[in-house]
Design goal:
The protein is built from 7 helices and 5 strands. By secondary structure, it is α/β, with parallel strands linked by helices. The protein has one domain: 5'-nuclease (Rossmann fold). It has a 5-stranded mixed sheet, with helices on both faces. The relative contact order is 0.19. Residues 123-129 have low confidence and may be disordered.
Length: 141
């Protein structure tokens, strides 16, 4: 089963920039891609932080379309433990660390345009340039 977790940059790439690369990656999926509630939160933040009405409308459209995708929460001790492991061993934004933990525990490929996630997951052989293959980065509980 090939399942993908889209981070915020991948959602924006797919919806706003119509990225052929992201579309190509998703064409390999055997199930619908998912987003994290963290990604939905980042998109909502973007709406509220928009500098003008036109930008707010554009960002709201992206957030609305992303909200149609299945969303994963932060439930589970395994995800929390993995987040702690990743946080202790790597430096990156806290949302990036959570997304890596969710993808790792869920066996999902993480689709991103964020170079910080690439650095965070340096143990992973990346499919150039933007996919972290589904691997277990955290020790088994």
């Amino acid at each position: 089963m090939t399942a993908f977790l889209l981070d915020t940059s991948a959602v924006i790439g797919l919806i706003e920039r119509r990225s052929a690369h992201v579309r190509g990656v998703l064409s390999r999926a055997t199930v619908d891609p998912v987003v994290s509630v963290l990604t939905l939160g980042e998109l909502a933040h973007g709406v509220h932080a928009a500098p003008d009405t036109a930008e707010r409308v554009r960002r709201q459209r992206t957030a609305d379309l992303a909200a149609r995708l299945p969303a994963l929460g932060l439930a589970g001790r395994d995800i929390a433990e993995c987040y702690g492991f990743v946080s202790a061993s790597q430096r990156a934004g806290w949302i990036d660390r959570w997304l890596v933990a969710i993808a790792s525990v869920g066996g999902l490929e993480l689709v991103t345009h964020d170079v910080d996630i690439a650095r965070l997951v340096d143990e992973v052989v990346w499919t150039p340039p933007w996919i972290a293959p589904a691997v277990t980065l955290c020790p088994a509980g």
